[in-house]
Amino acid sequence: MTEDTIAAIATALGEGSIAVVRISGPDAVELIAPLFRSKTDLREAPTHTVNYGWIVDPADGTVLDEVLVTVMKGPRSFTAEDVVEISTHGGIVAVQSVLELVLRSGVRLAEPGEFTKRAFLNGRIDLAQAEAVIDLIRSKSSRAFQIARRQSEGALSKRIVPLRRKLIELLAHVEVNIDYPEHDVAEMTAASITETCGEALRSVRELLKTAAEGKILREGIVTAIVGRPNAGKSSLLNALAQENKAIVTDIPGTTRDIVEESVSLSGIPLRLLDTAGIRETSDVVERIGVERSRGALNEADLILLVLNHNEPLHDDERRLMDELAGRPVIAIVNKIDLPGKLELDEVRSRFGDDRVVEISAKEGIGIDKLERAVSGLFFGGGIESEDLTYVSNARHIALLHQAAQSLEDAINAANEGVPIDLIQIDIAAAWERLGEIVGDAVGESLLDQIFSQFCLGK
Amino acid sequence: MGYNAGDYDVIVIGAGHAGCEAALAAARMGCETLLLTINLDMVAFMPCNPSVGGPAKGHVVREIDALGGEMGRNIDKTFIQMRMLNTGKGPAVHALRAQADKFLYQHTMKETIEKQERLTLRQGMVEDLIVEDGVCRGVITKTGAEYGAKAVVLTTGTYLRGKVIIGELMYESGPNNQQPAVKLSETLRRLGLELVRFKTGTPPRVHKDTIDFSKTEIQPGDDKPKYFSFETEYSDRANDQLPCWLTYTSEETHKIINDNLHRAPMFSGAIEGTGPRYCPSIEDKIVRFADKPKHQIFLEPEGRNTKEYYVQGLSTSMPEDVQLSILRSIPGLEKVEMMRTGYAIEYDAVVPTQLWPSLETKLVQNLFTAGQINGTSGYEEAAGQGIMAGINAARKVKGEEPVIIDRSAGYIGVMIDDLVTKGTNEPYRLLTSRAEYRLLLRHDNADLRLTPLGYEIGLIPEARYQKFLEKKARVEAEIARLKELKFKPDEQVQALLASRDSAPLQNTVDGVTLLRRPEISYADLEKLSPAPVELTEDMKEQVEIQIKYAGYIEKQMQQVERLSKMEKKRIPEDIDYSIIHGLATEAKQKLDKVRPLSIGQASRISGVTPSDLSILLVHLEHYNRVKAAARG
Question: How far is CA B435 from CA B55, B428, B438, in A?
Answer without folding.
Answer: 12, 14, 5
